[in-house]
Amino acid sequence: MAKSKNHTGHNQSYKNHRNGIKKTRRPKKMSMSGMNCKFVRNQAYAKKGMRCTPEEKEERLKAQKEAQKKMEEKKATEKAQRLKELEEMKEAEKLKAANKQAKKDAQAASKKA
Predict the structure, then answer these.
(1) Rounded to an integer, what is the distance from CA 2 to the centroid of its chain?
(2) C-alpha span between 111 and 113 (Å, rounded)
(3) Dihedral over Cα of 12, 17, 23, 24: its sign
(4) Which end of the chain is least crowded, N or C, by CB within 10 Å?
(5) Cα(22)–Cα(26) distance, rounded to whole angstroms?
(6) DSSP 8-state secondary structure symbol assigned to residue 35
(7) Is this prediction's pTM over 0.70?
(8) CA dihedral 51, 53, 54, 55 (to 10 degrees)
(9) Model confidence over 72-102: pLDDT tens digits?
(10) Which of these ranges, 12-21, 49-58, 60-69, has the smallest mean pLDDT?
(11) What angle do CA 50, 53, 56 make, to 5 degrees?
(12) How far apart are CA 73 and CA 6, in angstroms?
């Protein structure tokens, strides 16, 4: 007995393209279902906390800029301190190398004499 046909893709792509293959629409708001409920709840509270009047917003911006300025000053002082330390280390290494060389010279001179 002859085997029967199990599957064919004949004419399917034609039928699909008759109305055009369209991209799916992306949702405007992401679904929260299936997310960690503790995270979702915390996110809602955080969003509620961010709501404020324009005056409060201005105050927050001012405070943020002050904090940024403070951090930049701190960073600059730390950088200056680090550069100073590096300079001192270089100086110390130079002195150490010079002392080592002087000792070598002294030993060489004592061997000759």
Answers:
(1) 65
(2) 5
(3) negative
(4) N
(5) 12
(6) S
(7) no
(8) -130
(9) 999 999 999 999 999 999 999 999 999 999 9
(10) 49-58
(11) 80
(12) 75
For 7, the token pair is: 């599957």
- Residue 35: phi and psi, rounded to 5, are -85, 165
Token pair listed for 72: 């930049």
DSSP result, 53-82: -HHHHHHHHHHHHHHHHHHHHHHHHHHHHH
Q: Are 74 and 67 in contact (CB under 8 A)?
A: no
> Look-up: residue for tokens 């105050």?
59
Burial-class residue 21 by CB neighbours within 10 Å (0-12, 13-18, 19+).
exposed
CA distances from 90 to 76, 84, 85 (A): 21, 10, 9
Amino acid at 24: T
Per-residue pLDDT, averaged over 46-70, amounts to: 94
